[in-house]
Amino acid sequence: MPWLSLRFDSHLPPLVAAVADTPWGWIVLGLIVAIGVGVIVLYNQLVAMTVRADNAWSDIDVQLKRRHDLIPNVVEAVKGYTGYEKDALQTVIEARGRAMGATTAHDAATAENMLTGALKSLFALAEAYPDLKASDQFTHLQQQLATIEDALQAARRYYNATVRDLNTSVRMFPWNLLAGPAGVRPREFFEVENVSERAAPNVRFET
C-alpha cells in the first residue's frame, strides 16, 4: 500500500506512518482503532452499571432514613400507653441506632433485620393495650411504616437487580479485564431474612 502512505503520510504521526508503510499496516491500524473503541464502549458500560447501582442504593437509603426518622414517633406513642414495656422500647431504640450506623449493604441488612424484629415484638406487646390499638396516632404511624416498607422492598429489588448485573459483568470476559484497573468491584446484595415479615401490621393511622 505505498501509494496510500504517500498520500497520507504527511498527515499522520511518524509511528503511524511507519506502520502504514508495511504490507499489513492499514489492517493493523484498523485493529488498533477497533480495540480502542471496544475498550471505550466496555468502560462506559461499566460506568453506567456502577452509576445505576449507586442510584439504586440511594433510593434504599432514602427509605431507610424515612423509617429511622419515624421510629422515635412510634416509641413516643407507645410509651404513653405501655409504661411497663421499657425493655421493648429500649430494644427498638438500640436497634435503630445500630441500623443508622451501618456502613455497608450487608451490615445495613443485618441491622435492619434486627430492627424489624424489635418492631414486631413491640407491636405484639401493643396488642395487650386496647387504648393504644384504638389510638389514631398509633395506627397512623403503623400505616406509615407499612407504606415505607413497601417502598423499601421495591427499592431493594431494583438495587439487587443492578448489583446482579454489575457483579455478573465484572466477572465476565472482557469486562473483567477492565474492572480491576477501573476500580470496579463486585458489590454486596441488600438482603432481608424474610421479606414477608418486613411489613408493619396493616392498620390505618391518622395524624
Short description:
This protein is mostly helical and 207 residues long. It has helices at residues 2-8, 14-20, 25-79, 86-101, 105-126, 130-133, 136-171, 175-182.
Secondary structure elements and pairings:
Elements: H1 2-8, H2 14-20, H3 25-79, H4 86-101, H5 105-126, H6 130-133, H7 136-171, H8 175-182
Helix pairs in contact: 2-3, 3-4, 3-7, 3-8, 4-5
If you had to describe this structure to a student in words, what would you say it looks like?
- The chain has a domain at about 55-195: de novo design (two linked rop proteins), CATH 1.20.1440.
- It starts with a helix and ends in a 25-residue tail after the last helix.
- With about 210 residues, the protein is mainly alpha-helical.
- It has helices spanning about 1-10, 15-20, 25-80, 85-100, 105-125, 130-135, 135-170, 175-180.
- The model is unreliable at about 1-10 and about 195-205 (pLDDT under 50).
Helix/strand-derived category reads mainly alpha
Main pleated sheet: none
Question: Which CATH class of the domain at 56-197 is shown?
Answer: Mainly Alpha
What is the residue-mean pLDDT, rounded to a whole number?
80
Specify the CATH architecture of the domain at 56-197: Up-down Bundle
Q: Got a strand count?
A: 0
Content of β-strand:
under 5%
Number of helices: 8
- Specify the overall morphology: rod-shaped
CATH topology name of the domain at 56-197, in short, is de novo design (two linked rop proteins)
Gyration radius, in Å: 28 Å
N→C terminal distance: 82 Å
Give the helix proportion (percent range): over 70%
